[in-house]
């Protein structure tokens, strides 16, 4: 199985946490992608599965792109509109998903996806984007990878998440981590966008317990919606484990924020 069942409101209740506590994409990464792809002011960019809109807002703010953000979660779109207003830029945010893509979204210079491609029918999405994308255009997958975390708070977060997340959500997570899961790069190499290049920026970040708990609540597996009445219990369990791990309440992470640029030959 290579497609996770579509649930349009999977990220309900996460928007406020997602904007504040997920790993940010540095302006320098957006600027490097802009230069590498030749994106110019006024070029059309689709931020697919935009969430609270960080990527689309950044490209509108830094590159002057004509951005549309598409997401199936109304709360995410509300947060995205607030973010665009705070940045003083215009982005069109639309309710929908990859299953709603059609000619009205094209022609596109770039489609960006930030931690969202794995929720889609990836082969079908790339085939549709091939029809909507200009000849010199590209698909760009934004993500992040952890290099280290100190002390080992990510192990604690993983253990608590496995303990409290509902069984159906754990099953989906295991699918995406299992041996039969096909990597994004393989889908891209089978598509029209088979010319791949990755750009990454490595940074170190200082965190406290509140930020780690906020990170947990931003994830579909441990969102307040998924946890329900167990939300407070998870928070307390996580606080207790983190306090034992670091009595001074200080944690660090070294991460790479990256962009996988996929273009045609």
Q: For the residues shown, what is the average pLDDT?
A: 96
> Which architecture per CATH?
3-Layer(aba) Sandwich
Spatial extent as radius of gyration: 18 Å
CATH topology: Rossmann fold
CATH superfamily: Vaccinia Virus protein VP39
Helix content: 40-55%
Order of strands, main sheet, comes to 3-2-1-4-5-7-6
| Main beta-sheet annotation | 7 strands, mixed
The residue ranges in which pLDDT falls below 50 over 5 or more consecutive positions are none
Structural class: alpha/beta
Count of helical regions: 11
Beta content: 15-25%
Overall number of domains: 1
The CATH top-level class label:
Alpha Beta
Extended strand count: 7
- Distance from first to last alpha carbon: 29 Å
The topology string of helices and strands comes to: HHEHEHEEHEHHHEHHHE
Shape estimate? globular
Task: Tell me what you see in this structure.
- With 265 residues, the chain is α/β, with parallel strands linked by helices.
- It has one domain (14-263): Vaccinia Virus protein VP39 (Rossmann fold, 3-Layer(aba) Sandwich).
- It has helices spanning 15-21, 27-37, 54-63, 74-87, 122-132, 153-164, 167-177, 184-189, 209-217, 224-227, 231-245; strands at 44-48, 66-71, 92-95, 108-114, 133-150, 195-207, 251-263.
- Strands 3-2-1-4-5-7-6 form a seven-stranded mixed sheet.
- Helix 1 (15-21) packs across helix 9 (209-217), helix 2 crosses helix 3 and helix 6 (153-164) runs antiparallel to helix 11 (231-245).
């Amino acid at each position: 199985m290579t497609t996770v069942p579509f649930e349009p409101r999977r990220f309900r209740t996460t928007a406020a946490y997602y904007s504040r506590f997920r790993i940010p994409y540095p302006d320098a990464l957006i600027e490097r992608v802009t230069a590498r792809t030749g994106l110019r002011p006024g070029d059309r960019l689709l931020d697919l599965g935009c969430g609270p809109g960080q990527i689309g807002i950044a490209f509108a703010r830094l590159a002057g792109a004509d951005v549309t953000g598409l997401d199936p979660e109304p709360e995410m779109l509300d947060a995205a509109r607030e973010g665009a207003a705070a940045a003083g830029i215009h982005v069109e945010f639309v309710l929908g998903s990859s299953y709603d893509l059609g000619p009205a979204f094209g022609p596109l210079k770039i489609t960006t996806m930030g931690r969202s491609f794995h929720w889609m029918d990836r082969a079908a999405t790339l085939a549709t984007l091939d029809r909507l994308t200009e000849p010199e255009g590209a698909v760009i997958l934004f993500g992040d990878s952890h290099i280290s975390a100190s002390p080992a708070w990510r192990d604690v977060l993983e253990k608590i998440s496995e303990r409290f997340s509902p069984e159906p959500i754990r099953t989906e997570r295991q699918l995406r981590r299992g041996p039969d899961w096909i990597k994004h790069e393989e889908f891209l190499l089978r598509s029209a966008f088979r010319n791949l290049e990755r750009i990454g920026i490595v940074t170190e970040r200082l965190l406290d317990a509140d930020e780690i708990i906020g990170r947990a609540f931003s994830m579909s597996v441990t969102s307040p919606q998924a946890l329900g009445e167990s939300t407070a219990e998870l928070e307390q369990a996580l606080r207790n484990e983190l306090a034992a791990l670091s009595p001074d309440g200080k944690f660090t992470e070294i991460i790479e924020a990256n962009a996988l640029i996929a273009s045609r030959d």
